[in-house]
Structures are given as C-alpha cells and as structure tokens.
UniProtKB/TrEMBL annotation:
Family to which the UniProt record says this protein belongs: Belongs to the peptidase M20A family.
Protein name: Probable succinyl-diaminopimelate desuccinylase
Broad class of enzyme this protein falls into: hydrolase
Cofactor(s) for this UniProt protein: Co(2+); Zn(2+)
Organism: Gymnodinialimonas phycosphaerae
Chain segments annotated as coiled-coil in the UniProt record: none
Keywords: Cobalt, Hydrolase, Metal-binding, Zinc
Xref: PROSITE patterns: ARGE_DAPE_CPG2_2
Domain (Peptidase M20 dimerisation) ranges: 196-320
Keyword hit for Hydrolase: yes
Domain of life from the UniProt record: Bacteria
Length: 423
C-alpha cells in the first residue's frame, strides 16, 4: 500500500486526534505530587488493548517519589507481528503546576480554531496523542507489518523521570535487544529532530554562621552575608567564565549554546511561617544559608570540570573571609548526550519530514534534559531522538496550547517512519 494511503488514513483520524488530545488534557496529572497517574494509564491501556496491543501496567516501586498515596504508574503497550525490529514511542504523562495567568481552563482541553488549550497540551500530551494516531493508522493500512510497535506513557519526566523511564530502563525495557528505535514526541517543532540535550549538575551550597541576638550582630556570624560573598564572587568570576564557553552542539535557543547556571533557590535565617501566622520575626542572626544551583553544561565539558569551578569559587571566598565555612552537597547529575546524525531513526525521520512537510529537517539539541538521558545512560540504547508537535517555548506557560495541524503533520511523519522501519 502506498504512502498516500497511509497519510490519508492519518488525515481521516483528525477528529479522533483532537478528541484523544482533549481527553488526555482533562486528566490533571500534576507533578508534584503525582495526581491521576493510574487513571490516565488505565485510559490509554483500554484504548490500546482495543487495537490489539498487549499492555503492562508498571508501578515504579521504590523509585524516588513513589508512595502508596502517590504511586508512580507507567504503561507500556506492545503489538508484535513476528520477526523484525521494534519502534518505541515514549511520552511522559505528567504535567507541571498550572501557575497564574491563565485565561482558559487549564484542564478543559478547549478547542479554539486550530489550537487545543490546556496544561500539558504542548508538553506533551499532544505528542502522545499524535504517536497513538500514527500507530493506529499504520496498523489499519499495514496489518501484516514486520516487528513490533511499542507505546509508553511514563511518570515523572518533569521531575527527573526516576519513577518513569529510568525505572523502566533499569528493568530492561529499553535494552537494545528488545527495542531498536525510540522516538520521544517532545515539543521541539514539527520540522526539527532533537538529537539530545546538554548536561546538568545540581548542587546545594550551605554557608555556616553563628546565631546571636539581632540587636548585637557583632556577637554572631551572619551566614547570609557569607552567602552574599559567594554570590558576588559568582557574578565577578564564574558567570563571565561560563559566557565564554560555547558548543558545537546545535542547541536551541541561541542563549543555550553557552554554559549556564541558574540560582534555583535561596533560604537563610528564620523559616517562612505559615500563611495564618500574624506575628513578627524573631531577632536572630542567621546561622545557616543555603542556595540550590542548576548548572547546565556542554558536551565539550565534563562533570569534574563543572564541580571544580564551583569549588574554586568557594575556596576563593574562604581565603578572603575569616570564619567562612561551607558545605557542598551534590544532588544529581546527567551527562550531555547527542545521537549521531546518521543513526537509523534520525535518517528515517529526516526523510519522512521531507516527504510530509516538503522541507529539510533542522537538527537541534535541547537546552534541558528529558528522558533520552535514561534510555541512553541506563538502557544503553543510542538510537533515540525527540521528535513531536508543539512549540517548545509554550511549555510550562499559561494558556499552553498545541496546534491541531502540527499534531496531524507530526503523526504523518511518525506513520511514515513506521512504514520505513517495519515493512
């Protein structure tokens, strides 16, 4: 059967694509804390079983954040037609907090013109829906394909993916003997192929002081002032250094082609009281101050270098300030990753984009990490990309939306990819 028939089968499912996306948005799978993970997985399991898939419901027992109150549920569906390779579409089902500034119902799935609005519409329930429609159209037009199709909906990507893809990778679900091609339908724009991501290194820095009465600060030692010196040294030496580090990775947007660091949080002194507390603060010199840093680094760097730069800042301040004491606590890290442009899944999706969109695919690298890190690092599967509908800049924003035509076009690209790899 021709590509024309396959593309027509995707187009004929446009209304189904809209309805599926709306249904998925209406599950408020907020992370944290991890709401309705089981419900959305059961919904998808019922749909895919009706298409002949064998479905596994997998709770990430013992993973970070998994609890009986908020269990980390994942769904993996597989349809196998005999010998051949396996193409796996992996999407996360969790979404971030709604935040302020919405003019639409965040979980309404409202269709307005070509756009479907809602938290997770772009990141990444639209991509999940597109992959399912692509698979359904392909199965309908090519029921006797070779190999296997897998579709997964996984937990906690927005908080590191440890209760989702990392857990599945540890259980062997992404071993190269089981799965040969992985497409993650993250919202990187429908004409882009995302080859990987920058590295990340998170850490906490705590400065120590000595508590005393606030009217006699000379009897204490202010940890917040010590932290101020750390921040000043970062401004003077570290941030200018990071601005000089540039990469050959095709990172988007332009500002992420250099090394970056974000001060994620700062806390010092008396804790913030509950909202119903109406009293005044106590007069104390703070004896602890802590910052959390989020360092994003390039494939040309390594984790040891990143760590050494932070230690150099702290040791310089220590040499200049009497009684300066600090602790450095590393929270987590992920190395940069980038799939080869000549990898089979890359070349196949590139050709499909050319056919559907009549344009050359743009190759990009994500400024932040996503679940490719676990497929690569734990699963040891290198033939993996991110490709899906949606505009990256809309992710986590108020009035988040995904375009219906973008989803349809991406579904066509995914369907042609299945045809090339499984026929």
């Amino acid at each position: 059967m021709s590509d024309t028939a396959l593309l027509a089968a995707v187009a004929a499912r446009r209304d189904a694509l809209i309805a599926l996306t709306q249904d998925l948005i209406r599950f408020p799978t907020l992370n944290p804390p991890g709401l309705q993970y089981l419900e959305i997985c059961e919904y998808l399991a019922d749909r895919l079983r009706a298409q002949g898939f064998t479905v596994e419901m997998i709770r990430a027992h013992g993973a970070i954040a998994d609890s009986d109150t908020y269990p980390r549920w994942n769904m993996v569906a597989r349809l196998e037609r005999g010998p051949g390779e396996c193409v796996h579409f992996n999407s996360h089902h969790d979404v971030v907090a709604v935040g302020h500034g919405w003019t639409r119902d965040p979980f309404g799935g409202e269709l307005d013109g070509d756009r479907i609005y809602g938290r997770g519409a772009c990141d990444m329930k639209g991509g999940l829906a597109a992959s399912i429609i692509a698979a359904e159209a392909f199965i309908a037009t090519h029921p006797d394909f070779n190999g296997a199709i897998e579709i997964s909906a996984t937990a906690d990507e927005e908080s590191g993916g440890y209760g989702g893809v990392a857990y599945l990778a540890e259980q062997g679900y992404f071993h190269p003997d089981r799965v040969q091609h992985v497409i993650i339908p993250e919202p990187l724009n429908k004409d882009r192929i995302c080859l990987g991501h920058r590295g990340v290194w998170w850490a906490e820095i705590e400065t120590h002081g000595r508590i005393a009465h606030g009217s006699m600060p000379f009897l204490g030692d202010c940890a917040v002032r010590h932290m101020g010196a750390v921040l000043a040294e970062m401004e003077a030496s570290l941030f200018p250094l990071l601005a000089t580090k540039r990469t050959d990775m095709p990172v988007v947007p332009e500002g992420a082609k250099q090394s970056t660091m974000n001060i994620n949080a700062i806390h010092g002194g008396e804790p913030v009281q509950e909202a119903d507390y109406t009293g005044l603060p106590a007069a104390c010199v703070p004896d602890r101050c802590k910052i959390t840093i989020d360092r994003r680094y390039l494939i040309e760097e390594n984790e040891g270098e990143v760590r050494a730069e932070i230690i150099a800042v702290l040791e310089k301040v220590k040499a200049e300030r009497p009684d300066f004491h600090y602790e450095l606590n590393e929270l987590w890290s992920v190395s940069p990753t980038m799939t080869d442009r000549n990898a089979p899944v890359v070349k196949t999706v590139e050709a499909a984009i050319s056919k559907v969109l009549e344009t050359q695919a743009e190759f990009v690298v994500s400024p932040g990490t996503y679940d490719q890190k676990h497929i690569d690092r734990i699963g040891t599967l290198k033939n993996c990309i991110a490709y899906g509908p949606g505009i990256l800049d809309l992710a986590h924003q108020p009035d988040e939306w995904v375009g219906v035509q973008d989803m349809e076009d991406s579904a066509k690209v995914m369907a042609l990819t299945l045809a090339e790899l499984l026929l």
